[in-house]
Amino acid sequence: MDTQSTRLSLPSEPRTFGFYVDGAEVPAGGRDVFERNSPGHDVPVTRIPKCTPADLDDAVDAARRAFDDRRWSGLNGQARAAVLLRAGALIRERAEEIAYWETLENGKPISQARGEVAGCADMFDYASGLARSLHGDSFNNLGDGMFGLVTREPVGVVGIITPWNFPFLILCERVPYILASGCTIVVKPSEVTSATTLILAQILTEAGLPAGCMNVVTGSGSTIGQALIEHPRVDMLSFTGSTAVGRRVVEAAGKSNFKKLGLELGGKNPQIVFADADLEDAADGVAFGIAFNTGQCCVSGSRLIVERSVANEFAQMVQDKLAKAVVGDPLDEATQVGAITTDAQNRTIMDYIAKGQAEGARLICGGEALDMGRGQYIAPTIFGDVTPDMAIAREEIFGPVLTILPFDTVDEAISIANDTEYGLAASVWTKNIDKALMVTRRVQAGRFWVNCTLAGGPELPLGGFKQSGWGREAGIYGVEEYTQVKSVHIEIGKRTPWIA
Ligand code: NDP
């Protein structure tokens, strides 16, 4: 890495990783290896083993043993917290390395990756406190002869399947909370972005996490991912990705052991802008909400629902903002919008742009692939004259493509916002507190932003309404999600006999 320049260098050769089982890295050996090309540069950057179903069984067995012998769940909260705190510190120590490999595999700007890694360390710090404060309830009002307790117990072995858009962030929105609950873990990262998940496994071992509590199996979704969702010895599965695979997860759970599920799926998230908003702030927020992570973001604000009286002026303001966003080499410190992560996603986005034009929407800006000499890039794109029935208004594009839908009344804005099968996130921009609160209450979304967008942190939970998913991650809600509730009745004194 050339730290003198404002642009980091590419690695001289691909970095080779093993997968991770029972506290140790397992080299690929005779297994096939997946070579990942950097989407921003089109050169090989990592080599990752393609695990076999037998490797997955070994990982689940290790997690099962670690859970069943209570080497982790049997520790007190203080001891679990100490490991999580050390992990947070080690993430900070290795932050530059994690951000670098995240950028190379994903294509996101290095400055953004650094910010995400700092946020991830903070998740571990926060979850450490939750390991100590997690508690149940008691009922002291059941009469003199009875005392009631409600305890929380860890669910058991948790499988995690993560996508390629935020490989480290999405992982860290789950792992520290799951470990705080006392569960053990088997992760299957997306095959194209496995490196930083493997680095986290190393960090957790160094931080003192007992062997078997964090295992990582690498390989494709259709083989290893499918085997994990069907696995009968996995007690719970946290899946983040497409709604299509989310449906397969639900089917597989029904056909195997009815494992508990957490699902974070797609979104088609509204950004509602009223004429009385601070339009300068709103334009900046809307541009950020669609171009951040090249729009490959389940919570990206992809539907701009704007009051008709300011619609044209506001579209121009967003266009001006996007024209200034720096699109380019992810390893350049100045870059704000990087590369599209996979070839398949690049095709999907370009197909939607063509479909929008064929459907009669008006291309206001962008709409083309950008030639940077190498890698795959798409210019931030805005469509006007969009009608609610168009595919670009209804389907998750997962790219930097904004559709504009005008409205005249508050009711109409709310109705357009809710006219979707999804319910992941939403933003409202207005300086009128009544309108802000009314919209916040009535729009169906698991995350809501008032005069901001994409804000987050370890305290507030994540998850969706409607077909955006089940359950919540992060915060105390994210720890409780990985527990089961047990009610305990305790008789005090002599029993009233049933048979005299
Ligand atoms: P997928 O849902 O296919 O991938 C997400 C994760 O699931 C990856 O780890 C993938 O592994 C794994 N996976 C794939 N197939 C299976 C399976 N049969 N059983 C178990 N796990 C599986 O998303 P895509 O990568 O194909 O992206 C397609 C669309 O999904 C995007 O256009 C976007 O709309 C949406 N998406 C939403 C995300 C979100 O954050 N909500 C994140 C990513 C995508 P692998 O990658 O190794 O095949």
Q: Can you offer a commentary on this structure?
A:
The chain is α/β, with parallel strands linked by helices and 500 residues long. It folds into 2 domains: 15-265 and 468-486, 3-Layer(aba) Sandwich (Aldehyde Dehydrogenase, Chain A, domain 1); 270-450, Aldehyde Dehydrogenase, Chain A, domain 2 (3-Layer(aba) Sandwich). Helices cover 38% and strands 21% of the residues. It has a 7-stranded mixed beta sheet with strand order 15-18-19-14-13-21-22, with helices on both faces. Strands 10-9-8-11-12-24 form a 6-stranded mixed beta sheet, sandwiched between helices. Strands 1-5-4 form a 3-stranded mixed beta sheet, with helices on one face. Helix 9 links the parallel strand 11 (236-240) and strand 12. NADPH dihydro-nicotinamide-adenine-dinucleotide phosphate binds at residues 161-165, 190-192, 220-222, 225-226, 229, 240-242, 245, 248, 264-266, 298, 345, 348, 396, 398.
Task: Please state the overall shape, judged from the principal axes of the Cα atoms.
Answer: globular
| Rg, alpha carbons | 24 Å
Strand element count: 25
Number of helices: 16
Mean pLDDT: 97
Low-confidence stretches: none
Compute the separation of the termini in Å.
Answer: 83 Å
Q: Provide the list of bound ligands, each named once.
A: NADPH dihydro-nicotinamide-adenine-dinucleotide phosphate
Work out the count of structural domains.
2
Based on secondary structure, the structural category is alpha/beta
Instruction: Say which CATH homologous superfamily of the largest domain is assigned.
Output: Aldehyde Dehydrogenase, Chain A, domain 1
Helical fraction equals: 25-40%
Tell me the strand percentage band.
Answer: 15-25%
CATH architecture name of the largest domain: 3-Layer(aba) Sandwich
